């Protein structure tokens, strides 16, 4: 009789656990959390840009240009320099650092390129509507790649291999790539850099995808109000006022104040444990400290050490599977290719 009672108790406990898990999943969805779709057609619809359709040839060409340092004035800096695909899509330093080792004049940190396609806007001040427009900025920015549109066009047009690839990608034997075309194919490549994780598996219906600790962290994350800004597929990506409830303790690092309305783009939390340092100015290196600062600054609440550790445990489930990117072999420079300029 005791064995039967024990077995019944165990079954009841499992039923309660399953019910609680299912309730948490529903709670997460009601809080605005959305997974990366499992269905490839649904995902493609989400990442594609009708104005710049994603195709295999454009993605492959964009990958080469993403890694090509010759697009920069110095010939040393590529998109991958600040958005290193091997290190979480970031450079791992406080302020973005570019031409002549100059730091971003506002001490702005390089955000990850992984899953950037899911963001509503690009750049910390949200000034770009999409990845294609965003790709034009760093190439021309003096503290980054420091190139001109003309330089980029000369580099690409100097190499017959690149010209041919553009002609094939756009199905036009007379196509001559412009600066915008270069940014467009880089944007196409970046649109494919999505990283589905166990968190997505969970929201897509697999209740066993998260550990008990990760589920507890997800619950704290929602209950504390973190999902009010970090939501959607991007777990961020919208424009929000910053700070809200209390001054940001490292506001004196750099002079960035957001857009004209004081709005700042909410960074994605996907792969967050791989993208230190944190905040727009890269002033915080500890994820626990970042979590507690967000509680005070944005939510007007105190997040305890224990709660911060639980949220951190949940963040571990956001580390996704990176797409395999084989380092491309680039066309050789020639006499027509602009020479590097280190000044």
Describe the structure in brief:
Helix content is 40%, strand content 2%. The chain has 343 residues and is mainly alpha-helical.
Could you describe the 3D structure shown?
The chain contains twelve helices and two strands; from the N terminus they run ααααααααααββαα. Helix 3 runs antiparallel to helix 7 (160-169). The chain has helices at 2-30, 40-47, 56-67, 79-82, 131-140, 149-157, 160-169, 179-191, 198-203, 212-223, 287-299, 305-316, and strands spanning 239-241, 263-265. It is mostly helical.
- Determine the number of helices (DSSP H or I, runs of at least 4 residues): 12
Distance N terminus to C terminus? 86 Å
- The helix content, as a percent range, equals 40-55%
What sort of overall outline do the alpha carbons produce when their principal axes are compared?
Answer: globular
The counted number of beta strands is: 2
The low-confidence parts are 1-19
Mean pLDDT: 94
Radius of gyration, CA atoms, in whole angstroms? 23 Å
Biggest sheet features: 2 strands, antiparallel
Structural class comes to mainly alpha
H/E topology pattern: HHHHHHHHHHEEHH
Index terms:
single chain, mainly alpha, 2 strands, disordered N terminus
């Amino acid at each position: 009789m005791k064995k039967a009672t024990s077995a019944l108790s165990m079954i009841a406990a499992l039923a309660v656990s399953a019910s609680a898990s299912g309730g948490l999943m529903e709670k997460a969805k009601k809080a605005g959390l959305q997974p990366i779709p499992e269905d490839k057609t649904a995902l493609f619809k989400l990442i594609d840009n009708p104005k710049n359709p994603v195709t295999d040839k454009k993605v492959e060409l964009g990958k080469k240009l993403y890694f090509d340092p010759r697009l920069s004035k110095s010939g040393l800096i590529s998109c991958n320099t600040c958005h290193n695909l091997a290190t979480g899509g970031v450079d791992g330093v406080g302020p973005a650092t570019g031409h002549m080792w100059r730091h971003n004049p506002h001490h702005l940190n390089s955000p990850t390129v992984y899953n950037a396609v899911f963001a509503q806007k690009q750049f910390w001040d949200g000034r770009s509507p999409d990845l294609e427009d965003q790709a034009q900025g760093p190439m021309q920015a003096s503290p980054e790649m420091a190139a001109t549109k003309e330089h980029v066009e000369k580099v690409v047009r100097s190499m017959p291999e690149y010209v041919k690839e553009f002609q094939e990608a756009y199905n036009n034997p007379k196509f001559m790539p412009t600066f915008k075309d270069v940014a467009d194919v880089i944007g196409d490549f970046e649109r494919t850099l999505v990283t589905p994780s166990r968190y997505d598996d969970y929201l897509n219906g697999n209740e066993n995808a998260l550990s008990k600790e990760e589920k507890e962290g997800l619950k704290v994350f929602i209950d504390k109000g973190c999902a009010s800004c970090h939501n959607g597929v991007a777990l961020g990506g919208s424009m929000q006022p910053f700070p809200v409830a209390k001054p940001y303790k490292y506001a004196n690092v750099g002079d960035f104040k957001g857009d004209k309305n004081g709005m700042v783009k909410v960074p994605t939390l996907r792969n967050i444990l791989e993208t230190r340092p944190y905040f727009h100015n890269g002033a915080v290196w500890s994820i626990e400290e970042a979590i507690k600062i967000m509680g005070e600054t944005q939510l007007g609440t105190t997040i305890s050490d224990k709660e911060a550790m639980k949220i951190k445990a949940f963040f571990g489930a956001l580390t996704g599977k990176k797409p395999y990117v084989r380092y491309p072999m680039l066309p050789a420079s020639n006499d027509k290719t602009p020479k590097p300029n280190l000044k």
